[in-house]
Amino acid sequence: MSLSTVNHAAATAAAAAGSGKSFSSAAPAAPSVRLPRRWSPAAAAVSAAAVGADPAADRVSALSQVSGVLGSQWGDEGKGKLVDVLAPRFDIVARCQGGANAGHTIYNSEGKKFALHLVPSGILHEGTLCVVGNGAVIHVPGFFNEIDGLESNGVNCNGRILVSDRAHLLFDLHQAVDGLREAELANSFIGTTKRGIGPCYSSKVTRNGLRVCDLRHMDTFGDKLDVLFKDAASRFEGFEYSKSMLKEEIERYKRFAERLEPFIADTVHVLNEYIQQKKKILVEGGQATMLDIDFGTYPFVTSSSPSAGGICTGLGIAPRCIGDLIGVVKAYTTRVGSGPFPTELFGEEGDLLRKSGMEFGTTTGRPRRCGWLDIVALKYCCEINGFSSLNLTKLDVLSGLSEIKLGVTYNQPDGQKLQSFPGDLDTLEQVQVKYEVLPGWQSDISSVRNYSELPLAAQRYVERIEELVGVPVHYIGVGPGRDALIYK
């Protein structure tokens, strides 16, 4: 039996023992996959009737075997909270891309706050197995710092996290290169978190990167790492490199290799085996579609694919296995770093949203740029991902505004309407946004738990979003806590 198989068996047995769930090795027939259907107002009444008296339980239990939670703006939409809420109904929660630049803030049942970065948001649920897939990049020291922090706060991680042997290793040198690269770009910098994510993915694509499985071959590990160091030193004048640095890093990673070994598994095999066994898998995306390397506002994007395609390439799951995809979207729009932002608010209006929504990065603490909800960008994200439903978050932040705007169309300077979200940044930076103005509501909605109890203006806002994008809103966030969620 291979070492990865032993690790897989041990991890799954531990997860099963903690939850009472059975992870049988027998593989029944392949499960049927329910594909999402396009939403329409006419179908909404039928859907609502089907939900029954307990929309929370019925909505979640009806989700397909392999479901996903993806960001549908520029990140920071609140994906972690929804994953945390849905996780008890799933056997596995898996990250498919990104690294520790993703920041997911969640609260446990006692209201204690946890800031996660690489560890999937299902970790607070004892019976859930967490997987970091091959599409992610792993900064091992940061990974263990995160685990140590969870353990010190009473969260058991033993046997509950698997890391793909195909995932790429992110080294401190990648973080140094990230900072040097941003400094080199000067006034046209990307605005990265400087966590080394981009340089690590660059190493992956250049094919001189190191993967988790390389930690099992320390006899050749040093030679491969030497290539990375030399490449960075030849590219950046400010990058310091010496043989003593290399030796120190090799010794450091020898210790990391021993500690990481119990976490390493062939996660492609693990996940596909679970699919055959009809276990339920929830995929947690990092960042969001508008930061996708292909579909985002390039070059002001991340270095991976946070859209639906990244699930297949980042986990090794076939497209036909993927069912429901939930797009998470704030009731307004934010982004961090540089890049175009058509509906951005400046001055007091932007400051008001930032303060009310506590819009500061989980990972970096950076203040986020804020603006009205961009329907053009949201429709674009819905088209790319084929969302079956939306999770509208932070609706409570809009309380107290006399009016609320939706950016419904983009027009060129000559007045011509754009038919889609443009890929050309020169065009995007010149667009004139046409807004639809809706009345606001004055009451605090943070304690509301039933949709019918929302102010009529808030209901109208939610329903207008549904009408404009053609996707139903099934989950509405009205606060940071687990229970601050309305099922529609």
Written account of the structure:
By secondary structure, the protein is α/β, with parallel strands linked by helices. The chain folds into 2 domains: 55-166 and 266-487, Alpha-Beta Complex (Adenylosuccinate Synthetase, Chain A, domain 3); 167-263, Orthogonal Bundle (Adenylosuccinate Synthetase, subunit A, domain 2), CATH 1.10.300. The protein is built from 15 helices and 19 strands. The chain has helices spanning 3-19, 41-51, 55-61, 79-86, 140-152, 172-185, 197-206, 218-235, 243-260, 267-276, 309-315, 347-356, 375-385, 425-430, 456-469; strands at 66-71, 92-95, 104-107, 113-116, 129-132, 137-138, 161-164, 168-169, 264-265, 281-284, 325-330, 333-335, 369-371, 373-374, 389-393, 403-411, 432-439, 473-477, 485-487. It has a 10-stranded mixed sheet, with helices on both faces. The chain has a 3-stranded mixed sheet with strand order 14-16-17. It has a two-stranded antiparallel ribbon with strand order 3-4. Helix 6 packs across helix 7 (197-206) and helix 8 (218-235) packs across helix 9 (243-260). The protein is globular and about 65 Å long. The N and C termini lie far apart (48 Å). 45% of the residues are buried. Mean pLDDT is 87; it is low at 1-39 and 41-52.
CATH architecture of the largest domain: Alpha-Beta Complex
| Structural class based on helices, strands and sheet pairing | alpha/beta
Measure the end-to-end span.
48 Å
CATH class of the largest domain: Alpha Beta
At the fourth level of CATH, the homologous superfamily of the largest domain is Adenylosuccinate Synthetase, subunit A, domain 3
Summarize the main sheet. Answer: 10 strands, mixed
Report the C-alpha radius of gyration, rounded.
Answer: 23 Å
Shape: globular
Question: How many domains, in number, for the residues?
Answer: 2
The residue ranges in which pLDDT falls below 50 over 5 or more consecutive positions are 1-39, 41-52
Estimate the strand proportion: 15-25%
Residue-averaged pLDDT: 87
Measured as a percent range, the helix fraction is 25-40%
Number of helices: 15
Strand order of the largest sheet: 9-7-5-2-10-1-11-15-18-19
CATH topology of the largest domain, anyone? Adenylosuccinate Synthetase, Chain A, domain 3
Enzyme class: ligase
Keywords: Chloroplast, GTP-binding, Ligase, Magnesium, Metal-binding, Nucleotide-binding, Plastid, Purine biosynthesis, Transit peptide
Protein name: Adenylosuccinate synthetase, chloroplastic
Binding site for Mg(2+): 76, 103
